[in-house]
């Protein structure tokens, strides 16, 4: 038996979560370093997985398979395709930055320690690692049931992260902050739980129809023509799955939990949520909706594209109107998720490659923007745009990194999100020209909300509230600089990523039984 | 007609017909679990009479635990002998009791649940000691009026009601027979044997005695009604089939009966008798499982009863009653499946939805758990309705997973206390996660398991019953099931929010440090949540092998 790379990649953060949680209450710094070391070890392991991964090889590589719950037809089946590897790498990459950015976010205030066993710091970092472990495993799972378990289970640590840890200073006072935070956490959990439970019904349906949960077995059954799924059954099951993923992604009109969850949680948690956890939703659309229900996917495409389009324009419009920095970024993310979903369901190879790249690039660019925004907010304790002004004069490095993060968010050519947004638009345009054209409105609005945000907070006369604001500290630069470097590198030279992603996309396309329309440009090579 | 001829109508010559009456053939070995528990209960009664008061508590606890453990060993021995498998399962004690897979599985579950429940009965570190005497959750003297001088004297003297141990053993004995009963009279007797001690136990709370006694009266009255329904149903079914044994009734239902007693031929096969009788018996059982619309007693009784008793009742009674319901539906009435299924569909739907919705408005943790147990009864009914071997084993698995968690959850409730005893009002639980992170975390684990979050026992159980139901064609039921799970999740989450995300109240409750007894109970609950959630295969296998009824 070969070395279980994928299991180890998942087990490292899981073990890290347990070890971090077990660090004694007084040793807060030790807990932080423990978490950081485990997340870095996971990153190393993810790098090894990328090296071992052969883009030209079979569909699911580094596969592992063990019997688990025979009665449910469930096995512990792991394997990664190019899309899974890319997102695995993104997750492993972002978590150390999340931990580093949140270094002081969970330090207990000395006066607010009800007893000596109260240790929020350990809990905070353990929960982050727990989320990482579950997300990693969900990218690796090739068993529908195993995936479902993680899809649901990751809500619980995420819920505690949102509800249990908020920004230090809050305009409405501690009481109001706690109320709003627990409201946001409950909203997050209920939306996703309802989505997940509806998916549960569909998961059971898959078992009743196919008699197995293994993706490979189901593919074999389908290839051999032994899968007796009627058209209407397939469509119902598709809807069950898609609803859960649309809530997670999130897609208009089930997106409303995201702005409140991102607004109320600390910046690192918001990054974890939107850059890492939400990617499971879009990933699952590609992996499960399309591969399990190709017919139903094609059937639902027009409606989904329209919903994605609404997400793009509506998210961007609301972002323009926001007064709260974090909620602005949240609405921008909804717009971006619209692009990702549009790319997936355009059913062209450029569209899907673009969507996959988009997931990775959106993760990096949102992380950069949100974390810098978090640093800014932690300095003044306000999330309101109107409380800032002229920051670039007092904290030029902060302003500069904020600008680059913002430009990445608006997909400036030369930064990596441009590549993916371009591919998504080209891919959509080649099959659905009208939708592709309307979607470009999203880009225009992105320029508006990002630049206006920058202008209001960073330029102009220095406001009194901003006087004497410190610039980025070393820890904060260490967080932001690599992300920016990566944005530029992948913007200029996306080939390493596209090489990994493209074969997997072609594989998906062939399973959905779709070919690209028209003679085409060779996508992104 | 001549005199001798008339005379011969009611006499006969003795020599001809009075032969030897065969003594009933009882397989003592096979019903030993019941005999051991009942025997231990009787020894417990003798202990009450003859053991000095000081030593009574220890003697009773040890006796009860040993009795239950010995009975469990007997169950395991029987299962190891192969009585659980379809080939060797059979009907013992002249047709009164079945010894088969479901019976043994459920008996094992009941016994283990009872052991951990007895641990919470025996807990004496939570209530402040009365003088030099440590006290448990039970009234000093049940007969002393609440607030009377007699009560004060009893408390001062340090009396404790050690009778609870033999009483609970009697209840367990009834519960062991209940899912194994193979004729309607045994079923009824078992029902009474399990119910009567429970009525008493409900009335014995040390604190809030009036509510406790009120709960007992309500439980007794409604329970008596349901027993009467059940008994009436038994009579009608006897009229229908001329027999009370399950196998015989099933034969009549199926139309394969032979040797009809001429005296009963007239009414035999009268479908009105069958339908009404079956409905009444099922009603009696649904009362015990707490299904809507027979659930009215549940919240009041769960709230009023001493919390250890509530936990015991919520777990073990439910296991026993579902066992009896399964056997009735699968052994006696399979020929009637098309008739009972639509009705049970309706019951399952309103039970799931009703339990979940009403639970949202609850402000008392015990009432909340009561409604949650109603919702769970609905989920289990979904598995019952599957009418397939998978349905049986999924219900068995669910019951095993559910019972330990329930006992554990109520054990946690006993820990959170203020001056008035247990602080069961939800508002008092605010901020518990800050004061006592460990207790709150454990309770959160139980709540997540109740909510059916993946990687907990609740999810595995729910998945098993829903899968069986979907495979049995009850897809709408599954969809309603997941919807009501989502509703139910809301109120479980609400408690978690309260515990972790609210500020502690200055006058909030304290968390008592329990003795190792309660810790074991809670620990077993947590272990079951995790093991059944993450690696349930062994228990699914066990339930799968146990999924065949003897007939």
Could you describe the 3D structure shown?
Chain B: It is a multi-pass membrane protein. Chain B: Pfam families: Proton_antipo_M. Chain B: NDH-1 is composed of 14 different subunits. Subunits NuoA, H, J, K, L, M, N constitute the membrane sector of the complex. Chain B: The chain crosses the membrane at residues 31-50, 57-80, 104-122, 164-181, 187-205, 217-238, 272-297, 309-330, 342-361, 368-389, 395-416, 437-457, 477-501, 513-535. The complex is a heterodimer of chains A (525) and B (551). Chain A is mainly alpha-helical. Chain A has one domain. In chain A, 73% of the residues lie in helices and 3% in strands. Chain A has a two-stranded antiparallel sheet. In chain A, α1 packs antiparallel against α2 (28-52). The longest helix of chain A is centred in the middle third of the chain and has 38 residues, at 173-210. The model of chain A has no long low-confidence stretch (mean pLDDT 83). Chain B contains 22 helices and 5 strands. By secondary structure, chain B is mainly alpha-helical. The radius of gyration of chain B is 24 Å and the shape is globular. Chain B has helices spanning 3-10, 14-17, 32-50, 53-80, 101-121, 149-156, 164-177, 184-202, 209-241, 246-254, 271-289, 297-304, 307-332, 337-360, 365-385, 389-415, 432-435, 437-451, 457-471, 475-501, 516-534, 537-545; strands at residues 90-92, 97-99, 416-418, 421-422, 510-511. The A-B interface holds A 67-72, 114-115, 117-119, 148-150, 152-153, 155-156, 159-160, 163-164, 175, 178, 181-182, 185-186, 189-190, 193-194, 197-198, 200-201, 204-205, 207-208 and B 434-438, 448, 453-455, 459-460, 463-464, 466-467, 470-471, 475, 478-479, 482-483, 485-486, 489-490, 493-494, 497, 500-504, 535-537, 540-541, 544.
């Amino acid at each position: 038996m070969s070395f279980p790379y994928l299991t180890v990649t998942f087990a490292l953060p899981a073990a890290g979560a347990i070890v971090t949680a077990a660090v004694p209450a007084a040793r807060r710094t030790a807990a932080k370093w423990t978490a950081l070391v485990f997340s870095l070890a996971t990153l190393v392991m993810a790098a090894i997985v990328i090296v071992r991964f052969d883009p030209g090889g079979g569909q699911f590589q580094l596969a592992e398979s063990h019997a688990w719950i025979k009665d449910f037809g469930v096995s512990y089946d792991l394997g990664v395709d190019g899309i899974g590897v890319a997102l695995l790498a993104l997750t492993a990459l972002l978590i150390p930055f999340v931990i580093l950015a949140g270094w002081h976010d969970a330090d207990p205030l000395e006066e607010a320690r009800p007893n000596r066993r109260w240790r929020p710091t350990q809990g905070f970092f353990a929960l982050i690692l727990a989320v990482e472990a579950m997300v990693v495993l969900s990218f690796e799972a090739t068993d529908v049931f195993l995936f479902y378990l993680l899809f649901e289970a990751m809500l619980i640590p995420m819920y505690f992260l949102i509800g249990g840890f908020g920004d230090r200073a809050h305009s409405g006072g501690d009481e109001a902050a706690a109320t709003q935070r627990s409201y946001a956490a409950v909203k997050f959990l209920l939306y996703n739980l309802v989505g997940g439970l509806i998916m549960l019904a569909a998961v059971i349906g898959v078992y009743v129809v196919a008699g197995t949960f293994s993706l490979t077995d189901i593919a074999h059954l389908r290839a051999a023509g032994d899968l007796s799924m009627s058209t209407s059954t397939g469509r119902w099951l598709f809807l069950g799955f898609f609803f859960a993923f649309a809530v997670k992604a999130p897609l208009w009109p089930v997106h409303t939990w995201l702005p409140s969850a991102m607004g109320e949680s600390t910046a690192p948690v918001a990054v974890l949520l939107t850059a890492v956890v939400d990617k499971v939703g879009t990933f699952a659309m590609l992996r499960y909706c399309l591969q399990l229900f190709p017919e139903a996917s094609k059937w639902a495409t027009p409606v989904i594209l329209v919903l994605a389009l609404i997400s793009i324009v509506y998210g961007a419009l609301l972002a323009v109107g926001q007064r709260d920095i974090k909620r602005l970024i949240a609405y921008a993310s909804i717009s971006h998720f619209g692009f990702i979903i549009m790319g997936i369901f355009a059913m062209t190879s450029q569209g899907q490659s673009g969507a996959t790249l988009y997931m990775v690039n959106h993760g990096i660019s949102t992380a950069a923007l949100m974390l810098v925004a978090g640093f800014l907010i932690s300095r003044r304790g306000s999330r309101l745009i109107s409380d800032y002004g002229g920051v670039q004069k007092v904290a030029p490095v902060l302003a500069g990194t904020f600008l680059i993060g913002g430009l990445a968010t608006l997909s400036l050519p030369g930064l990596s999100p441009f590549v993916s947004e371009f591919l998504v638009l080209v891919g959509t345009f080649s099959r659905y020209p009208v939708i592709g054209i309307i979607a470009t409105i999203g880009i225009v609005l992105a320029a508006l909300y990002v630049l206006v945000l920058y202008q209001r907070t960073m330029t102009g006369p220095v406001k009194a509230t901003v006087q004497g604001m410190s610039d980025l500290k070393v820890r904060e630069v260490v967080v932001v600089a690599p992300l920016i470097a990566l944005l530029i590198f992948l913007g200029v030279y996306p080939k390493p990523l596209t090489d990994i992603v493209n074969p997997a996309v072609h594989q998906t396309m062939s399973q959905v039984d779709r070919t690209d329309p028209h003679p085409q440009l060779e996508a992104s090579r | 007609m001549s005199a001798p001829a008339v005379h011969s109508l009611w006499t006969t010559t003795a020599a001809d017909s009075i032969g030897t009456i065969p003594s009933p053939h009882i397989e003592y070995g096979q019903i030993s679990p019941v005999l051991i528990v009942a025997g231990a209960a009787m020894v417990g009664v003798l202990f009450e009479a003859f053991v000095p008061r000081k030593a009574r508590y220890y003697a009773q606890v040890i006796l009860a635990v040993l009795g239950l453990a010995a009975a469990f060993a007997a169950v395991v021995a029987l299962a190891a002998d192969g009585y659980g498998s379809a080939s060797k399962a059979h009907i013992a004690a002249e047709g009164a009791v079945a010894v088969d897979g479901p019976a043994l599985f459920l008996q094992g579950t009941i016994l283990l649940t009872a052991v951990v429940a007895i641990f919470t009965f025996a807990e004496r570190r939570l209530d402040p000691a009365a003088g030099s005497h440590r006290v448990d959750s039970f009234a000093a003297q049940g007969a002393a009026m609440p607030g009377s001088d007699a009560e004060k004297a009893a408390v001062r003297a340090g009396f404790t009601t050690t009778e609870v141990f033999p009483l609970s053993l009697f209840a367990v004995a009834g519960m062991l027979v209940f899912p194994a009963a193979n004729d309607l009279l045994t079923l009824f007797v078992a029902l009474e044997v399990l119910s009567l001690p429970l009525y008493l136990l409900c009335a014995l709370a040390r604190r809030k005695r009036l509510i406790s006694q009120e709960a007992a009266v309500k439980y007794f009255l409604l329970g008596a009604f349901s027993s009467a329904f059940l008994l009436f149903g038994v009579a009608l079914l006897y009229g229908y089939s001329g027999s009370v044994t399950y196998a015989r009734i099933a034969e009549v239902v199926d139309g394969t009966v032979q040797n009809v007693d001429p005296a009963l031929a007239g009414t035999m096969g009268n479908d009105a008798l069958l339908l009404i009788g079956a409905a009444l018996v099922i009603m009696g059982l649904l009362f015990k499982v707490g299904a809507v619309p027979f659930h009215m007693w549940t919240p009041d009784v769960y709230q009023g009863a001493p919390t250890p008793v509530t936990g015991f009742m919520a777990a073990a009674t439910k296991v026993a009653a579902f066992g009896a319901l399964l056997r009735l539906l699968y052994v006696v009435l399979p020929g009637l499946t098309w008739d009972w299924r639509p009705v049970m569909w309706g019951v399952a739907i309103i039970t799931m939805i009703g339990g979940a919705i009403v639970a949202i408005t609850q402000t008392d943790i015990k009432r909340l758990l009561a409604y949650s147990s109603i919702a769970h009864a609905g989920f289990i009914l979904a598995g019952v309705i599957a009418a397939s071997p998978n349905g049986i084993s999924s219900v068995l698995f669910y019951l095993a997973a559910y019972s330990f968690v329930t006992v554990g959850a109520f054990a946690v409730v006993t820990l959170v206390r203020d001056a008035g005893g247990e602080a069961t009002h939800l508002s008092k639980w605010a901020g518990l996660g800050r004061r006592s992170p460990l207790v709150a975390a454990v309770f959160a684990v139980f709540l997540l398991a109740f909510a059916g979050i993946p990687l907990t026992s609740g999810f595995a159980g729910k998945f098993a019953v829903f899968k069986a139901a979907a495979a049995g064609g009850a897809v709408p039921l599954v969809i309603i099931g997941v919807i009501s799970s989502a509703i139910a999740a809301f109120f479980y989450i609400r408690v978690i929010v309260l515990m972790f995300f609210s500020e502690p109240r200055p006058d909030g409750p304290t968390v008592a440090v329990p003795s190792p007894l309660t810790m074991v109970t809670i620990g077993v609950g947590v272990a079951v949540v995790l093991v059944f959630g993450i690696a349930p295969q062994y228990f699914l296998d066990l339930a799968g092998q146990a999924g065949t009824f003897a007939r």
